[in-house]
Design goal:
114 residues, 53% strand, seven-stranded mixed β-sheet, single chain
Length: 114
């Protein structure tokens, strides 16, 4: 059974930082593209950042220079370091694992507000 468990969300002030973690089980983690998506209220889910099994990364223009995705294959964990957070980053952040079919975590809420 595949499980993706996110952690690290919370309330942060504008300009602050958070690090999200997602630990996977039930998959050969190192062979999967790992990604972070987010969904804000009333909006569609969108890609934030992804990292291939080979370490290539892709990120949304809105987070370039502020968010960094990384992975630790020994720990079956993918991270999203989020700096210089803005109110518009407020969303539920979902972990995604993809090779043939996608798997999703349940999400973690990030709220950026003063």
């Amino acid at each position: 059974q595949v499980q993706l468990v996110e952690s690290g969300g919370g309330l942060v002030q504008p300009g602050g930082s958070l690090r999200l973690s997602c630990t996977a089980s039930g998959i050969i983690f190192s062979s999967y593209i790992m990604g972070w998506y987010r969904q804000a209220p009333g909006k569609q889910r969108e890609l934030v950042a992804s990292m291939s099994s080979g370490g290539n990364t892709n990120s949304a223009d809105s987070v370039k220079g502020r968010f960094t995705i990384s992975r630790d294959n020994a720990k079956n964990t993918v991270y999203l370091q989020m700096n210089s957070l803005k109110p518009e980053d407020t969303a539920i952040y979902y972990c995604n694992a993809f090779r043939v079919v996608p798997f999703w975590g349940k999400g973690t809420l990030v709220t950026v507000s003063s």
